[in-house]
Amino acid sequence: MKKTVLISCALLTTIIGVYNYCYYDSEKYVLQDEVGNQIINTNALTMMYETEYQSGEYQVSSDSVWPQEGYTFNAELSRCENGSTLTWDDENKKVQVKANTSDKCYVYFDANPLPLAEYIINKVYIEDGENGLYYHDGQGSYINADQEAGDNSYRYVGANPNNFVCFGSDVTPCPADNLYQIIGVFDGQIKLIKKMGFYNVTWGGVPNEEELVSGIKDNSEFEIVPLIDWHPEVCQKVDWSSSALDNYYGINYTEYMDKIAESKWNIETFNLSSYNIKTVFSNEITNEHVYLGKIGIMYVSDYGYASLPDYWLESLSTNDNDRNINNWLYTELVEWTISKRGDCEANLIYKGNIGATQIVDSIVYYSRPTFYLKPDVLYISGTGTQEDPYRIA
């Protein structure tokens, strides 16, 4: 049952007439706690909070203070039965009532949209494994939980999690070129990877047309995209600080680049032979060699942790078909990763297992742009499926 409040207001005289005016902060409606803070007398006031953003459903709140954040006063729904008017004083964060009689009033507040990262953490994540999410806090109780990254990230795993985002378009259905998937939430930022990548990407340099390797889709239909400015005669000095990724991948997102955070990408060289995912992750994060930019490609650990925990102890250099089909990042293509293997070698995903290749102009493989959204990018709608991806403000 909704609670009601009877409003008794003082009679005020002004140059335009006589009317009653009051705030919901009189002694009758606002009390003081033991330390002198003002609290609402919930026995005399009904506040209605929307259950979640754009749900259109409201429930009685037992809060004893006015909402300071997270909600917006709904002037259309807020009402008094005998004609008094309610307004929100944003400067003082309280409701004002203009009344000419005793009345019964109900104050409605709409839920504000959450940042997408906060939505994933608070609304989608329930417990490890549910909705395809695992919290890497180092305290899991499932199989191979001791192999967690331990970085307090939230990562999607399995064959087909509902982690789709429509980025750069508000068209319905979302165009294929605008479909991305969430790798996870890292330090309050959503990390996205493009669903449909690029097929002819060189690690560096642009090969001659006759040097293009086979095993990829029709090269003639695609622009050759170099990851970095690479010079074979000094390959041991390759430095991602000269990366071409922002220029090549960012050109399609001119209107949206302000939603992408500039990030530090760990790019230290290391050998992955026979390592499991936790060892690889530890190698990736403990180096000081970084590339600063908005657009990158995935880490080896991004790929490894996308498989089910059952496989986290396996060597990443072993091709395990069961592991592959239970990893949403798996493709049957050969794909670049962001880390080098040696002076003139790069780590790549070779049809499911991690390998390496010499960095030469004639090598052309698959690549998917990857980036972090800024923490304040808001969730608007969607359930995360490919047909109904998350939409952002």
Question: How is this fold's topology laid out?
Answer:
Layout: E1 11-14, E2 17-23, E3 30-32, E4 38-40, E5 46-50, E6 58-61, E7 71-73, E8 79-80, E9 85-89, E10 94-99, E11 105-111, H1 116-124, E12 133-136, E13 153-156, E14 164-166, E15 179-186, E16 189-194, E17 198-204, E18 225-228, H2 245-250, E19 263-266, H3 277-285, E20 290-293, H4 300-304, H5 321-325, E21 334-342, E22 345-350, E23 353-358, E24 365-367, E25 370-372, E26 379-381, E27 390-392
Parallel strand pairs: 5-11, 14-27, 17-18
Antiparallel strand pairs: 1-2, 2-10, 3-4, 5-6, 7-11, 8-11, 9-10, 12-13, 13-15, 14-15, 15-16, 16-25, 17-24, 19-20, 21-22, 22-23, 26-27
What does this entry look like structurally?
With about 400 residues, the chain is mostly beta strands. It is about 10% helix and about 30% strand. The chain has five helices and 27 strands. It has helices at about 115-125, 245-250, 275-285, 300-305, 320-325; strands at about 10-15, 15-25, 30, 40, 45-50, 60, 70-75, 80, 85-90, 95-100, 105-110, 135, 155, 165, 180-185, 190-195, 200-205, 225-230, 265, 290-295, 335-340, 345-350, 355-360, 365, 370, 380, 390. Strand 1 (about 10-15) and strand 2 (about 15-25) form a beta hairpin. The longest helix is centred in the first third of the chain and has 9 residues, at about 115-125. The chain is elongated, with a radius of gyration of 28 Å. The model is unreliable at about 1-30 and about 205-220 (pLDDT under 50).
